[in-house]
Amino acid sequence: MTSSSIFPLNAVKNIRAFDLRRDLKPAANLIELCFSDSLTDDGRRYLRNMRAAADVGSSAHWSALASIRGSFPLSGYVWEIAGEIVGNISMIPFIHQGRRLYLLANVVVHPDYRKQGIARKMTQAAMEKLKRMRVRDVWLQARENNPAAVHLYTSMGFTIQSRRTTWK
Prior knowledge:
The chain has a single domain (about 10-155), classed as Aminopeptidase (3-Layer(aba) Sandwich), CATH 3.40.630.30. The protein is about 40% helix and about 25% strand. It has 5 helices and 5 strands.
């Protein structure tokens, strides 16, 4: 993994670490808004689980999360403007062939705030954190019918390793 920092994280006031207690439901809502036309049944179930975990009381909160934690992102960043979450990036840990890696997922920006560099800055923040954690392998997914995302990621040094044609 190669990455170069363009900005110190603390210099960008709108970005902050994902806070499970307050960001879970707004992040689910934003993901649904941005990906509604391409959500699979699994994606819809994932969003329902996120909302259910956000809705439970504080003591039951962690039990609900534990039941879905296997595929549940517990870290990442959000972009906040005037108290509203308008961007999200999830960092999901995996072990693949004995190696630790992270998947960057749910990279979304509210349609009203696109073309302002928000996705790039969130991705850079995630990459910087992973670099500090000494993570060497980072994956992400972008649909071919989303040329803006493909361009963003290739401009940041990501390369296409495989193409997925069937989503189930």
